[in-house]
Structures are given as C-alpha cells and as structure tokens.
Amino acid sequence: MDASGSTTDHVTVSLSRSEALVLADALGRWETDGTIAALEPAASRAMFDLAAALEPLVEVAFSDDYDAHLQRARAEVLRS
C-alpha cells in the first residue's frame, strides 16, 4: 500500500492527444538517435515501454500529413 492507500502497482497518466503525439514523436527520435539506449538500463526499459504504449494511440503516425499534425500538436501543447 502506498501513502494514498492504493494497493495497485500501476500508475495512470492522463495526456491530451496532442501531448501524446508530441511525446511519442520525441521518444521516437530519442530511440533512433540512441538517447534512450544511453540511459541506465531500467530507465531505458521504461522509456521503450512508454514509447510502445503510446504508439497505437497516435493514429496519425503514418499519415501523409504527419508533420502538419505534429506542428499543430506542438502549438496546442505550448498554448495549454
């Protein structure tokens, strides 16, 4: 049991679709350039797992206008 009285081993994080797209894009770039692999092993695993969890939620990832979606998402995240 944690300090809040919860007995679950899972944490739920709420993101807007824009936040999810921006985060998924960053994680993808960090995976490609080796940033994630350079982390200590447990952090690296957690980041890879997060990237995998976000992947199916970002439906525009393979669209022809992905860059436009990403730019709008970045702008929305900065406005909020």
Structure description:
This protein is mostly helical and 80 residues long. It has one domain (17-79). Helix content is 56%, strand content 0%. It is built from 3 helices and no strands. It has helices at 17-33, 41-54, 66-79. α1 (17-33) crosses α3.
What's a concise summary of this model?
The chain is mainly alpha-helical and 80 residues long. 56% of the residues lie in helices and 0% in strands.
Structural class by sheet pairing and helices: mainly alpha
Number of structurally distinct domains? 1
Low-confidence stretches: none
SS field, number of helical segments? 3
User: Quick check: average pLDDT?
Assistant: 90
Helix-strand sequence: HHH
User: In angstroms, what separates the terminal alpha carbons?
Assistant: 34 Å
Task: Work out the radius of gyration.
Answer: 15 Å
Strand content: under 5%
What summary fits the major beta sheet? none
Quick tags:
80 residues; mainly alpha; 3 helices; globular
Explain the layout of strands and helices:
Elements lengths: L16 H17 L7 H14 L11 H14 L1
Helix pairs in contact: 1-2, 1-3
